[in-house]
Each structure stands twice: as structure tokens, then as C-alpha cells.
UniProtKB/TrEMBL annotation:
Signal peptide: 1-18
Molecular function, one GO term: RNA binding
Organism: Laccaria bicolor (strain S238N-H82 / ATCC MYA-4686) (Bicoloured deceiver)
Name the UniProt record assigns to this protein: Predicted protein
Matching InterPro entries: N1-like, Ribonuclease/ribotoxin
UniProtKB keywords: Disulfide bond, Endonuclease, Hydrolase, Lyase, Nuclease, Signal
Coiled coil spans: none
Membrane-spanning intervals of the chain: none
Length: 137
């Protein structure tokens, strides 16, 4: 019984000390964009890289990360409802490095220290420079 209590206390302490993205990472998300599959590690890597590159982007185009206004697409993101969305290229690890070609796939997350993952989108299969929602799980 003492061992079980010690384990519970240790796990509780570990969860309390986690940063928000680490707690979000425990939810284990994945995305399939066209024929590309992205793991939770790819998603967490992209969100962390975007956040450390610029934690509060104010522009809606140009360098990454930048704001995503969800227009004209008006997606319903599985884990977010409204708010300030941020767009950052989604690659298999290692995460996208600003200045390189971004590719077709993006991770969307909300601004602020919570770094809430919202979903994945892609240019693959979209008209013009538009986006379609990836299969998010």
C-alpha cells in the first residue's frame, strides 16, 4: 500500500510540474494529411518550435508562425473553439526550421502560454492556396 501511495504521489507531482504542452502531449494526438501521417511527437515538436520562434505572432502571413484567421474555410477544430489561432508548418521530426520550404501541412494551435493544439490542415487537395482539414485524432 505504501508503494502504491508513493507512486500516486510521484505521478501527481510530475503532472503538476508539467508545462501545458507536456500535459496536452499526454492526450496523444495524430493527424493524416493527404497521404502523410503525423505522430503526437511531430505535432508537439511543431507547436513547441512555433511557440519558441514567436510566442505571440501578430501577422497573418509571411514568416512562420503567423496568425490563422480561419477564413474563408471556417473550420471546426476538434480541440478548440474560437480564439486566436496560430499556423505553423507540420513536418515529421525534426520540426520545421524557419527559412526553409514549409511544405503543404500545418498545425494549428492557440496563442498564449497554454499552447493548445487545435488540429491539422493541409493545402493537399484544396483549391488554390486554400486549406482542407486533415483527419485529426
Amino acid at each position: 500500500m505504501k508503494l502504491l501511495t508513493s507512486v500516486i504521489v510521484a505521478l501527481t507531482a510530475a503532472l503538476v510540474s508539467c508545462s501545458p504542452i507536456e500535459i496536452e502531449a499526454l492526450a496523444t494526438h495524430s493527424c493524416v494529411c493527404g497521404t502523410k501521417s503525423f505522430t503526437n511527437a511531430d505535432i508537439v515538436g511543431a507547436v513547441n518550435k512555433g511557440y519558441t520562434t514567436n510566442p505571440n505572432p501578430t501577422t497573418s502571413s509571411g514568416a512562420y508562425p503567423h496568425g490563422f484567421h480561419n477564413s474563408p474555410e471556417n473550420f471546426s477544430f476538434p480541440w478548440c473553439s474560437g480564439g486566436n489561432y496560430v499556423e505553423f508548418p507540420l513536418k515529421t521530426l525534426p520540426a520545421y526550421t524557419p527559412g526553409n520550404a514549409p511544405g503543404a501541412d500545418r498545425v494549428i494551435y492557440q496563442t498564449g502560454s497554454a499552447k493548445t493544439f487545435c488540429g491539422c490542415i493541409t493545402h493537399t487537395g484544396a483549391s488554390g492556396n486554400g486549406f482542407v482539414l486533415c483527419k485529426n485524432s
